[in-house]
Design goal:
The termini are far apart. Helices cover 72% and strands 0% of the residues. By secondary structure, the chain is mostly helical. It has one domain.
Length: 68
């Protein structure tokens, strides 16, 4: 249970970093949606330690590509 809370805290931090990094081109809601979708792709995976890093990477790519 503590690991899940730690992962959720890390994902919230990812959202905040990406809102800051992409605030000029994407709304906060768009950033949250991209992170949520990226996070969902790792649901059910047994190894969780690197999920926040992988989510941030995937979300950054998506947001960069759609920045115009």
């Amino acid at each position: 249970m503590a690991d899940n809370a730690r992962e959720e805290d890390a994902i919230r931090a990812v959202v905040e970093r990406l809102k800051s990094a992409f605030g000029a081109t994407h709304s906060p809601a768009e950033v949250e949606e991209v992170v949520s979708k990226a996070h969902a792709t790792f649901a059910g995976r047994p190894v969780r330690e690197f999920v926040p890093v992988l989510v941030e990477r995937r979300a950054r790519i998506i947001l960069s590509e759609s920045a115009g």
